Amino acid sequence: MKWGRNVSSMRTPNDYVEIYGLDFKYGYDLGIFLQYSPKKIFGLSLELLFTTKGYESLVYVSDNKKYDMVAIRNYIELPLIAKIQAPFPCRYNPYIFFGIGPALNVTAKNRYKSAFFYLNGNDKIFDSFTINLHDDSTYEVSRGTYINYTFKDFHRWFDLPFVFGLGHVISFSKLAIVINTRFSLSLLGFNRLSSSMKKELNSKRIIYTELDEKYIHISVLAGLAYKF
């Protein structure tokens, strides 16, 4: 079993960062793993992890209205990890690892913590609200325009993260303590727009931002393993 804290954000064009701002979101990882080491310097590990990802950003609705938005993206991941371990004849063994595996999105929400409306030099604060991107309701944009898609249609519910990092094992007779620093990069974007979607958006003169929303994920994990 392993658990730990993480920090995540997304890879995005520089103009998005300049216009909207982008910050890290803190979360956690929790899961189990099974490792097989046919040789002392090499091993394979299959992991099942629940991990929280996302980012924080400002979203401007107009020149004088903005939201502090937190993107919440939770995944169940099943990576296959290869480990190369230093064959030191002691309890302490550092190693490097890398791997890849599927990830399924189980939570996708945009939480708008507060809204500010600047009017005659005064700040008007609106109530917070949350949008569930797994919602099946029809998408509505400003000025009452409807398009025949749901929130689900705009997003990809699976990912293929590539993971790598450094770690070390402290071995005992039947137990081992595993500590590692882990980096994860999304290979598939969370947001997606098909050619038919873009055509309809353009025909109705709806302005949209096309972001892949590929995540950068850094975590520090500690685990306890039993040797069979």
Give an overview of the whole structure.
It is a single chain. With 228 residues, this protein is mainly beta. It has a single domain (2-226), classed as Porin, CATH 2.40.160. The chain is 7% helix and 65% strand. It has helices spanning 14-20, 195-203, and strands spanning 2-11, 22-23, 25-39, 42-62, 65-77, 80-85, 92-100, 103-119, 122-126, 129-132, 138-141, 145-150, 158-159, 162-171, 175-185, 214-226. β3 (25-39) and β4 form a beta hairpin.
Report the structural category.
Answer: mainly beta
Reported CATH architecture? Beta Barrel
Write down the overall geometry: elongated
- Which strand order does the major sheet show? 1-3-4-6-7-14-15-16
Low-confidence stretches: none
Number of strand elements: 16
Question: SSE string, helix = H, strand = E?
Answer: EHEEEEEEEEEEEEEEHE
Radius of gyration: 22 Å
**Beta fraction of the residues?**
over 45%
> How many helices does DSSP assign?
2
Whole-number total of structural domains:
1
The biggest sheet amounts to: 8 strands, antiparallel, barrel
In helices, the fraction of residues equals under 10%
Distance between the termini: 15 Å
CATH top-level class: Mainly Beta
Question: What is the topological layout?
Answer:
Elements: E1 2-11, H1 14-20, E2 22-23, E3 25-39, E4 42-62, E5 65-77, E6 80-85, E7 92-100, E8 103-119, E9 122-126, E10 129-132, E11 138-141, E12 145-150, E13 158-159, E14 162-171, E15 175-185, H2 195-203, E16 214-226
Antiparallel strand pairs: 1-3, 1-16, 2-4, 3-4, 4-5, 4-6, 5-8, 6-7, 7-14, 8-9, 8-10, 8-13, 11-12, 14-15, 15-16
Question: Brief overview, please?
Answer:
With 228 residues, the protein is mainly β. It is 7% helix and 65% strand. The protein has an eight-stranded antiparallel β-barrel.
